[in-house]
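Posted in: Protein Modeling Q&A

I'm a second-year student putting together a small comparison for a lab meeting, and my supervisor asked me to include a predicted structure for Four-helix bundle copper-binding protein. I've never done this before, so apologies if this is the wrong subforum. The sequence is pasted below exactly as I got it from our records. If anyone can share the structure token output, I'd also love a short note on what stands out.
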Amino acid sequence: MSLQEMISRHPQVTDATLNEALVEASRHANLCAQFCTSCAEACVVEDMDMAQCIRNCLDCADVCTATARLGIRRTAQNVDVLRAQIRACIAACEACAAECVRHDNPHCSKCAEMCREVARDFKACLDSVD
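Accepted answer (user: helix_wrangler)
Welcome! Here is the predicted structure, written out as tokens:
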């Protein structure tokens, strides 16, 4: 079963209110959290000072997880809070990507790529959140 199928079974969700872009961005944000956590863990064993990268990755992972959770909730949704959380996620993903691209290693490259994708996904669906 897909996440879209699960949400479509919510008693207050219709085909018109499903918002598949938000559901997909939320699913993608969960994956991004895993990428960021993995990147932070890999940064621990790098030979250089990776403290800022680790911090950005862990912050991004936490923000992505929270945003994903808010993005799939449908009962009594607080749209203002959801929009603020999406904006925070975009900012966290952009900051993490900007830090990761400063490092020449494969885990940071993949993390930056994923963060840019999630930021793009949430930017694309922000106007459709209501």
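A couple of things worth pointing out for your meeting: The chain has one domain: 18-128. The mean pLDDT is 90.
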